[in-house]
Automatic annotation (TrEMBL):
Transmembrane parts of this sequence: 6-28
Keyword Transmembrane tagged: yes
Taxonomic superkingdom: Bacteria
Keywords, comma-separated and alphabetical: Membrane, Transmembrane, Transmembrane helix
Protein name: Type II secretion system protein
C-alpha cells in the first residue's frame, strides 16, 4: 500500500517564508506612522472645501456672504463670512466645512503659486476663480517629505495635481 504524502516541500516552505519577509519589510513601515498620509488627507479636505465654496458662490448669487477661501501658512478657511476684506484669522477662529487648522505636529503648510501668504481664492456666480487664482492657479501643500498640488483651472475646474 502506498501512503499519500501530504504537506509542503522544503523549497515551498522556504519560498513562502522569503516572500512573507519581503512583504513584511515593505509594508510594515506604512503602518508605523501616519506622517506620509496626513498630507493626502489635507489635500482631499482642501479640494472639498474649494468645491463647496464654488458651489455656494454659484447658488447664492444674491447673497452678501463671502465666497472665498483665505490660505495662510498652516490654515485655510473663511475668517469672516460677511466681510470679504478680512484676510487674517482671529485668535478664536474655529474652522467650519470650508476650513482647516493644521495640527503643528503634522508640519504642513499651504501657498498659492508659491507666493507669500495670505492668499485669496474667490469665486464669482459662474464658479470662475477670481483674485489670486484668476486665470487659474496651483495651491501647494508642503509636507515634510513631499509637496502635493491642487490645480484650479481658469474655467473653475478643481482637481488634484
Amino acid at each position: 500500500m502506498n501512503k499519500a504524502v501530504s504537506g509542503f516541500t522544503l523549497i515551498e516552505s522556504v519560498t513562502v517564508i522569503i516572500l512573507l519577509g519581503i512583504l513584511a519589510a515593505s509594508i510594515f513601515p506604512r503602518f508605523t506612522g501616519t506622517r506620509d498620509y496626513e498630507i493626502y488627507a489635507y489635500r482631499s479636505q482642501l479640494i472639498a472645501a474649494l468645491r463647496l465654496t464654488q458651489q455656494r458662490a454659484m447658488q447664492q448669487t444674491n447673497s452678501t456672504l463671502c465666497h472665498q477661501i483665505v490660505i495662510q501658512d498652516s490654515r485655510y478657511g473663511i475668517p469672516d463670512r460677511t466681510d470679504c476684506s478680512v484676510t487674517n484669522f482671529p485668535a478664536d477662529w474655529q474652522p467650519d466645512l470650508t476650513g482647516a487648522d493644521v495640527d503643528s505636529r503634522h508640519n504642513i503648510s499651504f501657498d498659492i503659486n508659491g507666493n507669500a501668504n495670505p492668499g485669496i481664492i474667490r469665486f464669482n456666480g459662474m464658479g470662475v476663480p477670481l483674485d489670486d487664482c484668476s486665470g487659474g492657479c496651483t495651491v501647494n501643500i508642503t509636507g515634510e517629505y513631499e509637496v502635493l498640488t491642487v490645480l484650479i483651472e481658469r474655467q473653475g475646474y478643481i482637481r488634484a495635481g
